[in-house]
Structure formats: structure tokens, C-alpha cells
Amino acid sequence: MDFNATLVGQLIIVFALVMGCICYYLGRRKTQSPILAGVIGAGLSIVPILGLVYLVVLVLKKDIEIAPTVVNG
Fold it and tell me: How far is 6 from 21, CA to CA, in rounded Å?
């Protein structure tokens, strides 16, 4: 079976973008810096197993508690 390097590269890029979005979404609930969580998830997804391990770590992490804001009015 013949693999085209361009197709493999495109699949890795699409996988990294999807994982970055998923990690950002989870990072909003589970970290103080969701953008950093998304960038790390996308970066680690270049090697797919590392991206999946990072995703599992985010899923298993406890949610952060957000303090209620008081509006003076």
C-alpha cells in the first residue's frame, strides 16, 4: 500500500487543529489559561499519542471553581 506524504501531513495538521480546539474547550473549565492549554494540545498532537495523553490528562483534571462576581448597581 502506498502512502502519500502530503496526505499524511494534512491529516496530522487537521488532527492538531481539532485537538487544539478540544483542549481549549476543556481548558476553559479546567485551567486558568485556556489558550495555553489549546496551544499545548495542538503542539503535542503533532505526535498523535502525545496529544491523546494530554487530552486524557485534561479530562481527568478537576474543574476549577470560579468565584461569583458582584455587580454594584
Answer: 23
